[in-house]
Design a protein that fits this description.
- By secondary structure, the chain is of the alpha/beta class.
- It has two domains: about 1-100 and about 200-235, Periplasmic binding protein-like II (D-Maltodextrin-Binding Protein, domain 2), CATH 3.40.190.10; about 105-195, 3-Layer(aba) Sandwich (D-Maltodextrin-Binding Protein, domain 2), CATH 3.40.190.
- It is built from nine helices and twelve strands.
- It has helices spanning about 1-20, 45-55, 65-75, 130-135, 140-145, 155-165, 175-185, 210-225, 225-235; strands spanning about 20-25, 35, 40, 60-65, 80-85, 95, 105-110, 125-130, 150, 170-175, 190-195, 205.
- It is globular and about 55 Å long.
- The termini are far apart.
- About 35% of the residues are buried.
Length: about 240
């Protein structure tokens, strides 16, 4: 009887949790996550998490945040889920990887810059995303140390500065930078410099059991082709 009672209490807790929308923080950056005037918060990361959690019986509530704010607010317990998770938290559980991020350096093709490795960033004006020095490691941090280096949350600002010759290089996620550049300045050609290791990311969740269920659902989506359909939708 005691086992049955504990099982009922646990089950009730699960149902009760599912009755409340999951508060999910996602990092601003199309096509991964951004605001659409008609549809609200949309993007690859949003579609994957929404589909996975809806299949598990949860409603979702998405919030767009700059990355430093996303990290702080998750660690402060304000969100149930945060993505992408290039960080850890005392009360957080990392999911399986499902976001194929590829950080690159980009420059204007007209400049004909040679950037074959991270050390070639030395002496150049570089703009990157928030916390890039932590995410990309010591070699990157050393290469941009002493340069005219800036971490800027708004990718549109980064690329506008690049286009106007106010910086030499922008460092960020390949799909994100090319997506925004094509929207803002379709006639301006970029050179892509793949100088960083490709690192896939997942989400971080407040509850371990929910992380485990998300992992199972991601695997299911990949097996059925639903994951690939989402990725192709945002090509």
């Amino acid at each position: 009887m005691r086992f049955v009672l504990l099982l009922l209490i646990f089950s009730f807790g699960q149902v009760h949790a599912a009755s409340q929308p999951l508060k999910i923080a996602v990092n601003i950056g199309p096509p991964w996550a951004f605001y659409d005037g008609e549809q609200g918060v949309v993007g690859i990361d949003v579609d994957i998490l929404k589909h996975a959690f809806n299949e598990l019986g949860y409603e979702t509530e998405f919030h767009l945040l700059a990355y430093n704010r996303l990290i702080k607010d998750f660690r402060d317990g304000k969100y149930d889920v945060a993505s992408p998770a290039a960080f850890t938290a005392d009360h957080g559980y990392l999911s399986t990887y499902y976001l194929p991020f590829e950080d690159v350096a980009v420059s204007l093709k007209s400049r004909q810059l040679t950037i074959a490795d991270i050390q070639d960033l030395k002496g150049k004006r570089v703009i990157a995303y928030q916390s890039a020095r932590n995410v990309l490691g010591e070699e990157f941090a050393d290469a941009v140390n002493g340069n005219s280096y800036l971490e800027e949350a708004e990718r549109e600002v980064q690329l506008t500065l690049l286009k106007n010759g106010k910086t030499d290089v922008v460092v960020g996620e390949k799909r994100l930078l090319t997506y925004i550049m094509n929207k803002l300045y379709p006639n301006v050609a970029l050179t892509i410099h793949p100088i960083f290791e490709v690192k896939p990311y997942g989400a971080i969740l407040k509850q371990e059991f929910l992380r485990d269920r998300l992992n199972q659902q991601i695997k299911k989506m990949q097996a059925t082709g639903e994951y690939q359909q989402i990725m192709e939708k945002w090509q």
